Each structure stands twice: as C-alpha cells, then as structure tokens.
Amino acid sequence: MTDTRAQLTAKDFTSNQEPKWCPGCGDFAVLQQLKNAMADLGLKTEEVVVVSGIGCSSRLPYYVATYGVHGIHGRALAMASGLKTARPELSVWVGTGDGDALSIGGNHYIHTVRRNLDLNVILFNNEIYGLTKGQYSPTSKVGLRTVTSPNGVVDHPINTVALTLGAGGTFVARVMDRDGKFMREIFKRAAEHRGTSVVEIYQNCPIFNDGAFDAFSDKDRKADTTLYLEQGNPLVFGNEGQKGIRLDGFTPVIVDLSDTTISKDDLWIHDEKDFIKANILSRFFDDPDTSATFLPRPFGIFYVEDRITYEDALTAQIEKTQENGEGTLEELLRGTSTWTIN
Amino acid sequence: MRETSTLNKEEMVTAKTSVSVLFAGDSGDGMQLTGTQFANTVAVYGSDLNTFPNFPSEIRPPAGTVAGVSGFQLQFGTSSVYTPGAKFDVMIAMNAAALKANLKNLHYGGIIITDTDGFDAKNLKLSGYGEENNPLLDGTLKDYTVFQIPVVSLTRKALAETGLSTKNIDRCKNMFVLGVLYWLYSLPLETTVETLKTKFAKKLDLAEANIKAVTAGYNFGDETEMFSQHGRFTVAPADKKPGVYRRVTGNEASAVGLAAAAKKAGLELFLGSYPITPASEILQTLAGLKKWGVKTFQAEDEIAGVLTSIGAAYGGALAATNTSGPGLALKSEGLGLAVILEIPLVIINVMRGGPSTGLPTKPEQSDLLMAMYGRHGDAPMPVIAAKSPVDCFYAAYEAAKIAVEYMTPVLCLTDGYLALSSEPMLVPSPDELASITPVFSPVRNADDPPYLPYKRDDRAVRPWGKPGTPGLEHRIGGLEKQHETGNVSHDPENHALMTRLRAEKVARVADIIPELTIDNGPENGDLLVLGWGSTYGAIKKAVEQVIEGGCSVAHAHLRYINPFPKNLGELMGKYKKVLIPENNCGQLLSMIRDKFLIEPVGFSKVEGLPFNEMEIEAKITDILKEL
To answer: Three-class SS of residue B535?
Structure first.
C-alpha cells in the first residue's frame, strides 16, 4: 500500500504549543530549520520521535508535531538509545544542551557516540546554563563572569568536536544559529547519515550570555574568524577568500593567497572521510579575542565515517540465532535441560 | 570376606527423609560444579531439593586459606524442601581450610568426608590450624563420623593409565568424591555420566577420565571397609506432581519470567542493565535469549540502564531493568520519570547487604522502604516480592502483567539468597500462564478528534500510544501534565488531580490481586507469622514444627506489598499477636504499623545470612510463652 498523503511542509511539523523561549533566543531558528529539514527529508510526523533532556533547548519536543519525550536532566541520549534499539525503524532526533549532554549527561554522551546508534543529535551550545538562570557551563570560556563564577570561570572548557571525535563519532558537524540555510542542509546530511550524527550549534543566549559567539557571527569579523568546510574544496577564508590553510606536516599554517608563490593547489583540501585531518581541524579552537595567532573556527561537517550501527549489529545477531525459526514460548519455559516425573 | 562385607553393607541401608550436604573446598577444586552435578542427580532421581552456593567475593583468593573456601550447600528430601538446610548432615571437606570454615555449621554427630591429601603440612598451615595441629588426628572431630579418604592418591591410581598429565588427573578428584557420595546415598551415576559426555564432547579423553573417576569413587564405596560400620543411606523420591521439571536459580527464573511475559503479551522484551552483584545473571541469561527476540542493552551505568528501558517502553516494548540496592538508588530519578510518564516498566531489584557497597554477595531485605518510598515527589508504584527461586519466575511475570495492564513501573524484589539458590521448577504450559493484554491506541484519522494520551479508563489507566502509529503523535515528559491532553501544565488544581489519579491507579491494582491466604495453620489463633520474600522457607519449616508441637500459630506470606491485599488488616486481626521476621531492621513492620496502627512483634536478622528455621522457631516459642 502506497502512502497517498502529500509531502509534508514545515507547518505540518509545527505543534499546537507556543514555544516559551525568550525573545531573541537562538533556539527559534534551530526549531524552524529542524522542521524545514524534516519536511525536506520527506518524513512523516508519525515516524519521528524527538527526545530531550532538561534545559531551555530540551523543550524542543513540545514544539514539533511528531512523537516526543522530554526526559530528565542529562539522560536524553540514554532514553533515545533504548527507543532506537527497540524501534530501529523510527527516525529519532535528540535535542540537548551543553549542560545536558556534556556535563550531567557526559557519560551517556561518550557511550552513545561510540555505540553509533542511528540518532540525530542536535547539541545546542550556548556556553551557559539558561534555565537555571545564568550559571557557567562546561563549555563556558575561561574568565566568564556568571552568578557562580563572580571572579571568572577557572574551568577549562570542553571542545565538543574534539570530544566527539575522540569518543568515536561517525558524523560530526558545527553550525551557527544564524546560518539558517546552512543548518538546514547539515540537518539533512545528519539525518541521512546512518549512525550517531552530532551537530553542535553555537546558539546565542540573549539573556545570560549574549554575544558569546559574536566573534564568529559579527559581519565585520566573521570572514576572518570562521572557516566553512566544503567537501573537496581547499580551506580558504577571509573577505575575498584571500587566506588559506596549508598543512606543514601535521601543522596547519595560514597562508596569504595574494602571495603569487602560493597557489590554491597547495592548500589543505577538505576531506570529511579523513580522520586525522578532522582531528586537526577540531583543534582549531582558539579564542579570536585572546589569541594573537588563532586559526579560524571551522563550521560544517568535520568528519563522516561509515560504521555499522549498534541496532543493525544487534538485529543481525538476533536474526542469526533465529535462522531456524524464532524460539517458542514452550521452548523458553522448558530451557535446555529437563527431566520428567511420572 | 569381601562378599560378606558387601552383604553386611547391603543390610545396613538406613532410610532418611531429608539430607543436607555441603561441598566445601578450595575455589579451584570445582565445588560449584560438583554440587551442581549432585543436585542434578537427585533432581532426576525425583527428590525435592534446594541449593545455595557460598563462594568468596574475590575471584581468585589465596589458595588453601579460609578466605578461599568455596561451598555449595544442598538439601534434598522425600517431602517438600524449602531451604538448603540450617545446618548440614554431611560435609565434604577437600582441604583443612574447608573444614575449618564450615565445621560450626555441621550437625552434632554429622558425617565428614575428607580428602586427607588436603591435610598436609602446607594446607594445615594455610588453613590456620597450624602444621602441628591436624584436626583429623588430634580429637577435634571426635563428635563426628569422619571418613578419611586419600582422594588425590586414589584418583591418580585410578587414572594412571589414561595418559593424562598429573595436573589434569588431579582435576578429577572432585568426581571421585562425588562417586563416593553417590554410593553412600544409593544414587545412580547416569545423570553425571551423561552430563560429562556432553560437556566434554570435544575432549573425549577428559570425558573418559572424569567418568572413570566418578566410577572409581563409587566402586571405592563398594569395596572399602571404611563404611561397613555405618552402611549406606537412601532418600526415597519425593511425591512430586507429575510433569516436566527444570532446575532454576532465582535469577534465571526472573529472566525467564520476563521473557515469557513478553512472549505471552506479544511484545518485544528490552532489558537495559548495568552489571551488579548479585543481579547480573538476569542480564546474562536474557543476553542468551536472542532466539526469542530478547534485546539486552548493557548500558554505561545504572542510570542509562533505566533510561534506555524507559525509551524502549515509550516505543512499545515490554521494558525491564535489573539491579541491586546501590543501582536502585541511582535509578530512582528515572523511576520518578517512569511514574509520571505512566509507561510500563519492570524493575527487578536483587537485594544485598547495605548501605553502600555493604555486603555485595550476601542477601538482605533492606531495600523495601526504598522500593516503597525512595523517590522524589509523591511517586507510588506497585511493589511485589518473590518468596522462592521458582517464585522469582512468577513474580517477574506478574510484575510485567501489572506494568503492562496498568501502565506503571512495577518494582519486583528478590534477594541474593533467592538469586543464587536453585530448586526444581515444574515447567508450566504456555496456556497455564495468565494472559497479558497491552492496549495500544488504534490509528486515528485526520478528522478524528485530537488524541488524548492521558485520558484514563475507569481504572485510571491511560492508553499506550505507540510511535509509528498515524494520528497518535503526542509529546509527553517529566513536567506535570494536563489531565487528558498530556500537555505541560503548572495549574495547581491539575497537579493535585494528577497526583491523586496516579496514586489511585496504583491503589486499584488491589482489585486484581488475590486476597492474602493462610499458608499453614489455623484461620485464627494466638500468633500469625507474617513474612515476605525469601524468608518463606525458614518460616514455613518453623511454623510446621510448632504446629506439630500443638501451638496455635499460622503463617501468611505477602507477595503484594504495594498495594497490600485488601484483607490484610482483617486477617491480622484474627490473631492475638503478629510476628514479622525480616532480614532488615523492621521495614515491613514499620509499614504495617503505619497503615494498620497495630503493634506487631519484629524479628530482625541482618548478618548477611538468611534466617534458619530454628531461629524463627525459637522466637515463636518465646512469644507464645509471653502470651
């Protein structure tokens, strides 16, 4: 039986609940692009489940007209893993924040990533705790003054992309909340990837950490501070694409393309299948405001790897044991060794 | 001469109704295997039996020391056997340390079978007896019947021509002892021989050597003069219900109970779990049941164990998680989520001595109040408890039935004693198992009114809306939900209503559980012994004894702890006193006092050991004196 329903639009993915985020919150943009991507992907509302933990961004499921579960703090990935294992045919998306995924849920994060269940993880990173009103998070920059760090944060921040690659991630990407179209395309790539796809979103919190990512989004600065990764293309940046990145051994070096002795052919060509290069890229993590020799912050897809998913491997094992038929209840009750009393 | 002595021995066969045996030796002596072989033999022979392993928590403790002693206790008999026996009648001591560790629990006048080769200077020293103090020679054992057999030497002699290495030959010594015991209790060798053939199907030389050793042990009994004074024993088969039997430990039974419930309900079983003693065998057993479609998920921690299960339950699976005390504490936030989501979930908690790491390998019943109240907020859930290894099957099965039919998490309590004990289980036919009926909401069309995930039926139970079903798309979570719609609501009156409805739903489980019945004893009288969980066997035996002595005492055993059976208060009122023995400091006692405003007598044992019937019998006798 073919489904005769028309292709759904973003509107069909809009629930009847009014989002309760603060005006100007970056989450609105993410919600919109998520719904756009779901429509583009031709998904049906009944086959999608959005799972979340706790935090501002974890309200996400209530605003998408699919199935949804809003869990407890840090545990979204565990819940999503159980759901996906039980129901591999569902399209499971996880909305989680920097506190939810990387602090209280850090353990689940690394283990989910290494297992490689086919989940789409949208990691809203605003470098702050919003819902609890402004405490610093595990991704906050050193020195950030918050209610729990009045003299400035002393913790070294987590580098999400490097952590994800270290944990064995098979799809790792970063986007900016303001890059709507780009985000939509990355979401689609993430959904199409069979495995755990992590999309880190730099998301502005206008209330407690406004401007945290200005260095990468200000019109005047972003050309020099950001690097957009495109498969098969050289790493170039700057207003007129006049700067490039060349690999000197394992060391990335910024080169000036206006220098006629350097051609684009000498540059690092982005290859999202290259694990070593992805790891080097993940270390482009300097703060443009404090580092004189910073490398531009990469956005886009760092790395993609084809690796069997957890649920596929488990299903294969089950199917193998059932080659000669599924066990019956009677066999189950009898077990392997019985005796009879007459 | 030989014929005469054999004849004499044949004449001297003493019939026994039950015998408790301890196999004790070094961790490497294969005592668990030997005990298991003996258990299988008596089971097939038709005895009732109960077994309990007692091994060190360390994997490879120092050989020859008391810390390294591994034991396997078993009681078999002609009538129903409920415990492995408070004390044993026969002890196999493979070395000096095994004797030293266990002598205090041997009945006065009991039988000791020793391997004298395990009492050399080195073993005596390591055991703590001291090189100069051989208990086999110095009169320590004068009150017991001691059979001293040079097992290692005899085994080497019997297997001399097998061509095996001395190391491999010495590994067969446990089979020699087993053969002696089969002779002593007039039991057949066939079950063990068959098992050895299967076990060593690919190592025929080892199969042959082990069979030779067990046979040599048996023949030794026949030939030696050693037993002529005492002769042999027989224990007639029990009058068991005809049928097909299997032997199960409590943990195996719990696992099979969950898998059977899923099959019966037509659901897929998902177990999210993290290994913890003494609960891990549930995960291990279910991991081996993929042929039945069981999915196990060894999570990164206890929290993920319960949360993956909640995710699977939301997806429409029969979901379960298993743990022991420390893990239950870690899962408690997740259980609160399961309560507010109102999804089916079975939590099997195999209790052990606490708090903290406590006594990981020893049983206790001290998680009852945590099971009842150990969650934030008003978060009631049904709590049931298993009373025997076989009952772990039925308790897990019933927990699944209640969970699915009432859309609630259910806590099923067992303990380390039940988990590792084994007994024969009459295999039920699939038809004998109660039905389990999940009610999934059907597909809805575009012109149907909106789906209401929290619209309750007349039992206050909400529907199960399975993802993938068109028209049921709904969002739920840990935030308080509006009545019927399930939307987020902070309305004060709605929260009060939802709190009441969640409690009412759990309370209504009392409508389907059976009333409490008297297990043994008069319908009214002087004393009711009210037990729960693994104390069943000890209470059962103790009450049988005092009833035989003419006392007005009855035994009732609680399976349903939340909600209680409807008639519990009335039933307790028919006795002058109520005694509650528990392996904790009075947790059920508190609950009973709280709910019924009566003052039962508590009886606590928190030594990491189960009660034995003599302790309970003595307590009953004391109470009766004061009445």
So the answer is: helix
User: H or E segment at B506?
Assistant: helix B492-507
Of B316, B313, B269, which Cα lies nearest the Cα of B289?
B269
Is residue A55 within 8 angstroms of chain B, CB to CB?
no
Q: Are A43 and A93 in contact (CB under 8 A)?
A: no
Which helix (H) or strand (E) covers residue B623, if one does? helix B613-626
Contact B291/A334, CB-based, under 8 Å? no
* Ordered structural domains, chain B, with CATH: 2-235 (3.40.920.10), 246-432 (3.40.50.970), 525-626 (3.40.50.920)
User: Would you call B478 an interface residue with chain A, using a CB distance cutoff of 8 Å?
Assistant: yes
Would strands A339-341 and B243-249 be described as parallel, antiparallel, or unpaired?
Answer: antiparallel
> Is B271 near chain A, with CB under 8 Å?
no
Q: Return d(Cα B419, Cα B413) in angstroms, integer.
A: 11
**What is d(CA A131, CA A100) in angstroms, rounded to the nearest whole number?**
11
Q: Which residues in chain A show pLDDT less than 70?
A: 1-5
- pLDDT (tens digit per residue) in B487-525: 999 999 999 999 999 999 999 999 999 999 999 999 999
User: Residue A61: its chain B contacts at CB < 8 A?
Assistant: 475, 477
Q: Quote the ipTM score.
A: 0.97
A91 touches chain B (CB under 8 A): no
Chain A and chain B share a number of CB contacts under 8 A equal to: 205
CB of B252 closer than 8 Å to CB of B281: yes
Which residue in chain A has the smallest CA separation from B294?
A318
Number of helices and strands in chain A (H, E): 11, 12
d(CA B230, CA B568): 51
Residue B438: which of B334, B563, B349, B319 has the closest Cα? B319
Kindly state the DSSP code that residue B509 receives in the 8-state scheme.
Answer: G
**Best CA proximity match to B35, nearest among B66, B68, B76:** B76
CB contact under 8 A, B291 and A322: yes
Return the pLDDT at B447: 93
B368 touches chain A (CB under 8 A): no
Q: What is the pLDDT of residues B34-56, one digit of tens each?
A: 999 999 999 999 999 999 987 76
Task: Please answer yes or no on whether A72 and B241 come within 8 Å at the CB atom.
Answer: no
Domain spanning A11-231+299-310: which CATH class is it, in words?
alpha beta
Strand locations in chain A (E):
48-52, 67-70, 91-97, 119-125, 171-176, 197-202, 226-228, 236-237, 243-248, 251-256, 297-304, 339-341
> Is the backbone of residue A122 left (phi > 0), alpha (psi -120 to 50) or beta?
beta
**What pLDDT was estimated at residue A292?**
87
Q: DSSP character for A326?
A: P
Who among A72, A333, A339 is closest to B333 (CB)? A72
Please provide the average confidence, as pLDDT, over all residues in chain A.
96
Query: Treating both helix axes as pointing N-terminal to C-terminal, what angle do B325-341 and B302-314 enclose, rounded to 10 degrees?
Result: 30
| Residue B76 amino acid letter | F
Tokens read off for B579? 């005694």
- pLDDT, position B56: 67
pTM above 0.90, yes or no: yes
